[in-house]
Amino acid sequence: QVQLVESGGGLVQPGGSLRLSCAASGIMFRLNTMGWYRQAPGKERELVAGITSGGTTNYVDSVKGRFTISRDNAKSTVYLQMNSLKPEDTAVYYCKAAWAGYASWGQGTQVTVSS
Q1: How many CB atoms lie within 10 A of CB 92?
Q2: Are 102 and 108 in contact (CB under 8 A)?
Q3: Which has fewest Cβ within 10 Å: 38, 39, 50, 97?
Q4: Any idea of the CA torsion for 23, 24, 30, 31, to the nearest 10 degrees?
Q5: Which conformational region is residue 26 in: left (phi greater than 0), alpha (psi within -120 to 50 degrees), or beta?
Q6: Main-chain phi, psi angles of 74, to 5 degrees
Q7: What is the model's pLDDT at position 57?
Q8: What is the dihedral of CA 93, 37, 86, 83, to 10 degrees?
Q9: Neighbours of 75 (CB within 10 A)
Q10: Per-residue pLDDT tens for 69-101?
Q11: Do residues 78 and 69 touch, judged by C-beta distance below 8 A?
Q12: Phi and psi for 31 in degrees, rounded to 5?
């Protein structure tokens, strides 16, 4: 059974930081491209950050310089370090695993940036 479990979301003030974690099971984690997506109320889901099996990363322009995606293959876990958070970062954040034609999603974790 494939399972992706996100954690680390919550309420944070503007300028603050959070680290999201996504623990994967049921897949050959090291072969997967991992990604963090987010969906804000009334908006479409967007790719925030991705990391390939080789460690290559990419980010949506709005988070470049503030967010960092990383992976620990020994722990089958991908992380998203979020710094200098802004209210517009408020969204449900989802973890995704993909390899060839396979893709799996986590349930999501809420991030709210508000004073």
Answers
A1: 18
A2: no
A3: 39
A4: -140
A5: left
A6: -65, -30
A7: 98
A8: 90
A9: 12
A10: 999 999 999 999 999 999 999 999 999 999 998
A11: yes
A12: -90, -10
**Residue 107 contacts by C-beta under 8 Å, 6 or more apart in sequence?**
4, 5, 6, 94
- Dump pLDDT digits (tens) for 21-33: 999 999 999 999 9
CA dihedral in degrees (69, 105, 86, 15; nearest 10)?
-50
CA distances from 100 to 33, 83, 97, 103 (A): 9, 32, 10, 8
Under a CB-based contact definition with an 8 Å cutoff, are residues 106 and 6 in contact? yes
Nearest CA among 45, 53, 44, 33 for reference residue 101: 33
Backbone φ and ψ for 72, nearest 5 degrees, come out as -125, 100
